[in-house]
Structure formats: structure tokens, C-alpha cells
Amino acid sequence: MPKNSHNGSALEFIREGSRPAGIGTETKVKPRVFALLFLVCSSLGLSGCVSGMLARKIVEAPNRTTQPWPPKGSATAERIAKTYALTFRVAVAPATELAVAIVEPADYSLRYGTGIEISAEGRRRPHYSADWNPQPRKEQAVHRKGTIVLLHGFLMAKESMMHWAVFFAQQGYRAVLVDLRGHGESGGSWITFGATEAGDLVKVMNEIERLGLASDGVGVLGSSYGAVMALHWAARDPRVKAVVAMQPFSDPEKAVMEFAHGFPDIQKLVGGLSDATFAAAIKRAPTLAGFKWADANVMESIRRLRIPVLFYHGTRDTWVLPAHSQTLASAAPAGSRLVLLTEDDHASLGVRLDPIAMDVADWFVEHDARVLMSAGGAAASPVAAPAIP
Predict the structure, then answer these.
(1) Which residues contact 138 (CB under 8 A, 6 or more apart)?
(2) How far are the Cα atoms of 18, 258, 283 from residue 261, in angstroms, in the given order?
(3) Which of 97, 102, 374 is nearest to 216 (CA)?
(4) pTM for this entry
(5) Interval 77-84 mean pLDDT
(6) By C-alpha distance, which of 49, 316, 364 is closest to 216?
(7) What is the C-alpha to C-alpha distance for residues 310 and 340, in angstroms, rounded to an integer?
(8) Please, which pLDDT band fits residue 316 given cuts at 50, 70 and 90?
């Protein structure tokens, strides 16, 4: 792992497993109002009312009611902002832009550690600490290798992938962090589980190329929801040359049900609902957001891929079951690989670097666009952007 620490106090981060904080007074109240209405409808036996509210929560943009880590104005947020070499926004639809940030290759003197806290109730709570120099000196340059795009999980934001960004930057890669539609600082009123997001990422890639930030294709690493977006995007855009998918789901409808019953804060709210009520909500949700579940078919995307995928999944994961990665890996192109981590659940794998980071780095070295050479030894010809409907 990276060493030679920057002399500064370590930053302590807690991710996925923590309760999302609200944005401002108005949004802090929204979850309470939703819970109250939810309980009233349930107590009156108004199953249609319950399924309607649940359907909205399935596809409503998370950043409308939750504030992702880190809180604005915090020391952590300031540290991350100083690390960004460039930030910009990409228009993906009328009145909808995605926020993008760049971490340039350099030696950031990263120190990193993870751990698991066990609460009095027996709940596992992962945490990690990280310390790095956000503004490395010019003499701390590293050999440049290529560009890797990082995609975050549900309810999260691009900053939750900062540990991977700094790690890859130290390995010589330009790291591109994207707030997916409806997350972080990006716009959009709804999320669509890949139906729209794949096209969004094609447009982000177009802008990355226009700015001269990638000329030979990119690699992409995604976590959870972001891993699925990576698969959808890679199936559509031949400029994606390598994919690492951590704890993805193979079926969004099943995943919604599993996550609701596995994620503690949501489980408390919906644990008593019948399967019929849940099924009605899941069926209704895409209508609200203007898409069809068939448009977010992950198995169809995995079958369209022409590049192998490196999968990771924790066997302790109860939010998105390991069977999802097993199903995807069984249908993935030749050369794909699935690594099951016996000590990890969904939250702990999301914050981990060791013991997988160097294997991930090796995967990108093996499949990165810059090492894809023709028989004559010349670099492969640039690939045109796919048409966007």
C-alpha cells in the first residue's frame, strides 16, 4: 500500500451503514413526514397509499432528501476539494447536469486503514481512516498510465470513492469521479437504475475526451449501484476498456426488495409490509420516473459486453446477496473473474482497499487501453462515441 505519510491528522470516515443526514431544515423533516404518513396509511390498511409512497421512494433522487458524506464545510470536504485538480459539470438532459471531478496522477503520500466496529446490538459498522497530501509537489510526479472512472453506490456521492481515486492517482492513473444522476451535486429528479444513466455516462465520456483527459479509452470501477451503471455503460460504449464491478446486482427489482429488507434503517420502516405491497410498489416505480424495468436489464448488458469483468462480492452481504455477482459472472465474457471475500459485507467492501487494491490495479494494467496494441506494435485506433438516442 502507499506509504510515506503526509504530516497531518488522519481523517476518520464512516460510510454506508450510517444514517443519511438531511440537507437543511426542510429536508431533515421530510423523512419524518414520510414515516408518519407511511404509518398512518399502514394502520388504516391503505395498501395503495403505502405502495404509492414506497414506489416514489424507490426512484426519487436520493439527494433531494439526504446529504451524502462528507458534510459541506467540514475539514474532510475541504481536504477533498483541495485534491481536485479540476471540477466541471456535464449537461446530460434539459435542466440536468452531472458533477465531475478530476484527481491527477501524483504521489499523495496516502496512508489508509480500515476496521469494523461492533455495536452493542451486534451490528457491524465499517470505518476507515485516510491521510494524504492534497497538493503534492511537482517532484512527486508519477508515471502516467491512463484514466479510470469511479462510480459510487446508492445514496452516496463521488467523494465516497475518494480512497480509490487517490490510490489510482498514486498508481499513475487520472481518476475521474462522477456524481450519478440524482446523487451528490448532480441534477435529476429521478433515478432509473441504468436505463438513463448509461447514456449520461456516454456524454460524460464525450466531455472527458473533449477536454483531453482521455484519448485511448478508460477503465471503470463501480461499487454497488455504481457497479451496475458501469456494466450498462460498458455494454454501450466501446471506449470503456476495462471494468471492475464490486457487489453489483443482477436484477434491480430483486435488489430493491433485498436492500429494503437488509438495510437497517429502511428495514425498520418497511419490515411489516406484505410481499404484495412491495411488488405493487416496484411495478409502479418506473412509471413515475419515465422508464421501464426492461430498459435497466443488467443481464442483457452483461451479455452484450465484449470485455471481461472483475467482480468482487462479500459473502456476508445481506443488502445485495452474493448470488447476484455469481449470476453476472456466469454470463460475463470469457476471462471474467469473481472473487468472493469471506469476511466482508456490503458496507465493509465499499470502504476497502486492502487486500484487493493491487489486484484491481493489475487488472487495469492488463486491460487498460494504453496496453492494447495492434500486431504491428502501434496503439489501437481511437473508437468513436456511440450514438445517443
Answers:
(1) none
(2) 16, 5, 17
(3) 374
(4) 0.84
(5) 94
(6) 364
(7) 11
(8) very high
